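The pair is quoted verbatim below.
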Amino acid sequence: MSIELGKFNTLEVVKQVDFGIYLDGGDSGEILLPTRYVPEDVQIGDWLTVFLYLDSEERLIATTITPLAQVGEFACLEVSWVNQFGAFLDWGLMKDLFVPFREQKMKMQIGKEYIVYIYLDEESFRIVGSAKVDRYLSKDMPEYQPGDEVNILIWQKTDLGFKAIADNKYSALLYDNEIFQTLHTGDKLTAYVKQIRSDGKIDLILQKPGYEKVDDFSKTLLDYIKEQGGSTSLNDKSDADEIYQTFGVSKKTFKKAVGDLYKKRLIVITPEGLKTSE
């Protein structure tokens, strides 16, 4: 049996000692899970899912704490401290994640957050981070279709909009003129594929494209009006920010839904706002 460093592994309890328990690491030998992480009533022969990393003395050790990211993932992490070798980022474990100077695009500063990729350095057998994100994004042509849902991590602001990482794998872009909410580096949210460009990069939007979104939101809007006692002061003249804060959709989507409900004679439009026609 082989273990995966920097990831979760399910291992068997083989020994109990005063300072914790030992797990069967196969070819890597027995691995300590310190007392502070040992679940109650654990017995020899039980199987535990633990995260494996190296402690401050470079010894293989287990924890039941879930880090902010694993090996093979991108994450937005804050710098805890720096020294003459590089920066150390808080990734939720007792030992910080090391980012050597050679893996920094610019010198990292304490207290600031950076998008990094976490990988296993094959030469040193250490878990390290890299801010040179482009190197680790897939060069394969994505197989998404327009409208497909993806999970994204906001990467950085550009002149066109925001770069994002889609499904922990692909480079993607959200255009400024199609963003109707405030975004920050490190935000995680759901987006939808608008198109795949010839270079394999993905154009994204934050709302479901086309009439499917309007149909979905039409029902949401009608339910909202009913919950408000059958009327709302919101209308197609309302501020776009107020609409987004209330419903999480653009003013364009809101207006389409209003038109849809009006055509179906489910609402009436008055100078005071929208009312149900019932």
The first strand starts at residue 8 and ends at 17. The chain is about 15% helix and 40% strand. The mean pLDDT is 91.
